[in-house]
Structure prediction request, 642 residues.
Amino acid sequence: MENFFSRYKNPLALMAILFIQVVALATQVKRPEGGTGSAASGGTRLIRVWTVTAISPFERAFVSTGSFLRRNFYNYIDLHNVRKQNRALQAEVDQLKLEQVRLQQDAEQARRLRSLLGFTQHYVGQLLPAQVIGTSGSELSHLIQIDKGAKSGIKVDMPVITPDGIVGKVKDVFPYTSQVLLINDRDSGAGVILQNSRLQGVLRGSPQGELRIGEMMSDEKIEVGEEVVTSGGDRIYPKGLPVGTVSKVSPDKDNDPFLAVKVKPAADINRLEEVLIVTKIAQDGPDKNLQASDVRAADILAERLPSIPKPDEVKKAKAAAPANAPGQGGKPAQKTTASGTAPAVSAHAETSHTAKPAATTPTQKVAANPAGAGNPAAGNPHSASASGQGTNKAGQPDQKASHSGTGSATEKKAGASVPKAANVSTPHAAEPKATATPKAGASPSGVSPTTGDSGQPKPPEAGRPPQ
Amino acid sequence: MNYAAVSLTSREEIEVHRFSWPVSIGIPLLAIFIQVFFPLRLHFLAIFDLPLLVTIFFAVARRRPIPGMITGALIGTVQDAWTSLPIGVNGIAKTIIGFLASSLGVKLDVDNPGSRFLMTFTFFLVHRVIYVVIVLGLVGGNEPFSWRHTLLAALANALLSVVLFAGLDKFKQRM
Prediction:
């Protein structure tokens, strides 16, 4: 027996070492049902930490020294052209300022519309710059090392981007360094959307380091050059970040009914020097937007609307009311714009305790608005004033009504609700165009703050025009 | 019954060398450092597999299979720590190469440039085949295997090995 071991010492040692490594490998590989295996780094993390900790300081030192020398060299070179560049940049800044103003307006409008539709916006909240200090050193594994780790607040799965586009996500975090799995690695994946065709798919890396979008049906129209952005569906990358452009579309030989869509990455993945880690993804919900806007809109309305009507105005209104009310009936309400008054009207819907003010159609909302029609008939002086002004300032009479006609509770409600809507369409509120239905104006049961006095909070049905 | 060892080398050519501890640890770490650092700026350098060349060199120079395979296992494991692959893929491949190289070193003259070129060329191909088999069979990945690229890489590594081994010869110490 002893002779056997001494004779086959080397092959036995080989088998023993291989056995240990195979067992270690087996513990790391998770094989999902019906799919290919994937690596789980749980048990071998210590090896990775030790290795990276031993070598990364040298990499950091090399990169820092290289950067220092390169920076100084370029600083010297750049000094020659500083003045000329400065002038050009100043001109560019001026131009960008003008553009920024326009974009701000667009953004504000987009935010308002988003909040109307109830969208939740995810965007890049906080970025941390990091320097790339190493690679995997293998053609078969697309991974980079960065000089920021757990001490800098980096966590696993944080997205890594450049100004050009997404780069990858954090795979492993060590105290002072991290490993980033590039999007072109075969283990990588990202939810993407094609900019023009709005087709969604999953972007995957390939063993060759190429980017492909899989499972696109062959009857889909995808053009070469179409931009690809993140869809946000993977819950890693925020929506709308550039990914790349479609470089080739061909039938997928392996998956017959599908297309093989090849994507050229927007970021130069092979020449990364500095990257940005998204350490915080901010969420912007509709309520938050509206709340922020409420204050401004309320201020605006408070300036524009008197809270307590003056006695002489009341008298005038009283005098004007009989003249308008019997002859025109619902006309004031007819003149109220459907589009323009929607905000003010929806405010009424809320003041009248309707359950679903947002769901109310313009017609319904107008019907719910008694200020222009029902109230004059009822002889309400404020309503009369409303009918007099309704054509031009749709929101104003409603406010008056709510302020003067009802108790403090109603006032609060009106105050809280009007600006919401007013904020959305304040620009249109003054539009003289009137398209509301006559039925709406003729509604005798229209609920307003004044009708609210009767103690009958009306459901949404109250706003419907009578049949 | 005694068996005479079959060898293609003369007794004078079979020299077993050893290395100092700093060299034994420093050279493999330096090779891994270069491997992970330089392709960052010069992407084409990823075609070289310096840790493999160092494994072959140490195994051949020591001419002892067990130290050869342990060297291969350690270098491969450290190399794996830098990749997205599970640890052990390079470890297993380089263990086998370490074993084969040290076994071959006993039987062949591996100190002249021609034999070094052929040896490295062959071992690179064997290493790549083992690597792909492990990835396909054990990890369950889909590893591409391009013969043209693999042959080109083998050629480049073989050429580099001639220069590299000549430089590393200076660290050899006779036993």
